[in-house]
Amino acid sequence: MSKQSIHNFYINEQQSIYLLSHHDAKKHRQWLNICKKQLSLLGYQDVELIGSGAFGFVFAGVEDSGAQWVFKFSRITLAQSVRDRLEDEAYMLSQINNPMVPEFFAFERVKKQGILMMARAKGEDLEQISLKQGRLKPRDLVNLALKLRNVLLDLRERKNGMSLQPVVHGDIKPSNIVWDQQSDAFSLVDWGSSVYAQIDVHGEPVASNIMDLMSSDIASTNARMGDVYFIGDEQMSGARSSPRFDEQGVASTIYALASAQSCRFGAQVIPAASLGLPIEFARVIDGMLSKDKVTRDAAGDYFIRNMPAMAKVYLPDISLPQAKPYIPFWTVQQSDLPDTVVYSSRKQFLRRADHNQQLLDVNDAQLDRYYKEFLFDTGDTEKAFLASISRLAKYPVVGGLSFHWQQESLFVESSLMLHDEDLQDAFTDAVNATVMLAQGIEQKGLFKCCLFDARQTIQLERDETGAYIFEQLPELQYSVSHVAASEVTRPHSYFEDGKDPDEQLQLPKKIIQCVFELNKIHHTGCIIFESLSDRLKIHYYYRLLDAEQEAAFSALLREIIQYTVSIQDYGVAGFMKLPYKNTREFELCTTQHVQYYPKNPKR
Ligand SMILES: Nc1ncnc2c1ncn2[C@@H]1O[C@H](COP(=O)(O)OP(=O)(O)OP(=O)(O)O)[C@@H](O)[C@H]1O
Fold it and tell me: Which residues take part in binding ATP (predicted)?
């Protein structure tokens, strides 16, 4: 790649491109195009962006011989020390020779930008597959578990010459496993957290040679932080690296795929034993996810020893009725899918004191990404609940949710509109997991979130004096569908559940009046004002449910926009409105009941 293109390399954190400023979005698009063009100039064909993560983003291209290559770049926005890890990743990948791991081709550096080149794994990553399919079938899970077990064994038995030199992957999770359903080929990608193991499964130091033992500081860890949603307690707490880390990644992965979640934290409320898996398999996974190290390790040993036998069990698909959504959602088929972003009210009540504060001094980009806001001092079930809300936003869906935990019950109000009929079943699994996790939360309180289409977000730029720059006032769009009127509902103020000093924006009275007027018209929707020094963003969606009121409705939306330009304060404020008639009541439930795969599936 030319120096010029590398020099300008710029990719933002994973946020919807539609929420970036016009300038940043343009820069981002230009960059992707420059990278694609440069890879094409280097002779690769059909170059496309195939993935991105916290550390990098990944292109694929076809080499002259027809071989499929992958090019991984680190994000230019990361610290140089973090970006330098791509070279370590390249080195570790080059050390692995396993049919389930993409072959290493080269590492190249142009100026400060490294590019890791490797073979393209066939298929799609399991996070994507899980989002499309919902809960994976027991047979697929058992099959995957056996393959992963075989890779784990290969990694821990790896030798350097005569001596044992086990390798830890360190970041096993669904998005790092690529699966081709047709050929049943699995690949484990992303070796960015990989290291040589310092201790073996029994906790004994591994020393490949005597010099290593003498020179290395055997008390401190060489471990890298994997994804905090999937790594086990030891990796999280900075223990020395061990093949046990990957057992944890495998258990988390199987669990997440079995339960249609994007993390390991829900296992207390939705144990593997409740997911219709074969009894032995479910118990091993629950054992591996246990809080008790002895149980965990024993289950890990059992998994390695017995997975081949467990995989021999005949597991035909059993025709179960498709799960019903615990809360209703509408489905519409639309060609322009929303780019969904979720915005949630303060998560304060989900916080729990973390007395150990064990992660405070771990300096890691990914830790920062996940822990900055709230995860740090939040209980496991609360983490899982929040992760499940984020998972909902991975679907093309707009709407709002409000969870109200009271003494005996959980009340859920919702208004969700899914824009792709094919995803109905998978979305049902995701929604049901969210509800089950909410049932498992014991504190009393309120949590609300809006899911909106970032493509619709209105951005009004401000000049240096703070005045808005526009030629014509933008319009708030809405859809209309007639639904029999229910009783008048009240609007939810977005931050109703407590003042947030960082986010509270004082809205002009006129806007609030309009919102209250709007409330008298049967509709559902949300509007969030995000006022920054250089621009104002208005995130929203509106769905009018009483077509006869359209004139009044659109007049009020126009009025809101007119008063918007008098917003001078900074911060966030918003409202959402959900139809009350959809309120559902659920019992609180700390653990879902046991459900195994039938002993006799033919019956
Ligand atoms: N060799 C490969 N073949 C096919 N797809 C790949 C390959 N490597 C990566 N990908 C795809 O690109 C995505 C991102 O890659 P990767 O996980 O390596 O990036 P990352 O920035 O390290 O991500 P993370 O946030 O998980 O650490 C993967 O989820 C996968 O879908």
Answer: 72
Q: With contact defined as beta carbons under 8 Å apart, do 274 and 594 qualify?
A: yes
Taken in order of first residue, the domains within the chain and their CATH numbers are: 3-119 (3.30.200.20), 124-310 (1.10.510.10), 330-587 (no CATH)
pTM of this structure: 0.90
Q: Which residues pair with 586 in a beta bridge?
A: 410
> DSSP letter string over 7-46?
HT-----S--GGGS-HHHHHHHHHHHHHHHHHHHHTT-EE
Annotated binding-site members: 72
Give the C-alpha separation, 472 to 470, whole Å.
Answer: 6
pLDDT of residue 502: 45
Q: Is ipTM beyond 0.90?
A: yes
- Position of tokens 């047979």? 139
The finding on whether 168 has its CB within 6 A of some atom of ligand 1 is no
Residue 4 neighbours by CB under 8 Å, 6+ apart: none
**Of 385, 392, 401, 390, nearest in space to 350 by CA:** 385
Rounded to an integer, the average pLDDT of 304-319 is 92
Contacts of 427 (CB under 8 A, 6+ apart): 134, 325, 329, 392, 395, 397, 418
Please state at what angle helix 244-259 crosses helix 138-156, rounded to 10 degrees. Answer: 170
Q: At what angle are helices 126-133 and 244-259 packed, to 10 degrees?
A: 20
Lowest mean pLDDT among 52-56, 199-203, 341-345: 52-56
Which residue has its alpha carbon closest to ligand 1 atom 19? 53
Q: SS3 letters for 145-205?
A: HHHHHHHHHHHHCCEECCEECCEECCCCCHHHEEEECCCCEEEECCCCCCEECCECCCCCE
Residue 240 to residue 223: CA distance in whole angstroms = 6
* All residues at 6 or more sequence positions from 28 whose CB lies less than 8 Å from its CB, including other chains: 10, 11, 12, 17, 20
Nearest CA to ligand 1 atom 13: 51
The H or E element that residue 308 is part of is helix 293-310
- List the residue whose alpha carbon is closest to atom 17 of ligand 1: 190
Atom of ligand 1 nearest to the CA of 118: 1
Which of ligand 1's atoms lies nearest the C-alpha of 191?
18
The answer to whether 253 touches 288, Cβ cutoff 8 Å, is no
How confident is the model at residue 514, as a pLDDT? 94
For residue 225, the tally of other CB atoms under 10 A from its CB is: 21
Alpha-carbon span 495 to 219, nearest angstrom? 47
Write down the H helix ranges in 486-579: 509-518, 550-564
Q: Which residues pair with 459 in a beta bridge?
A: 537
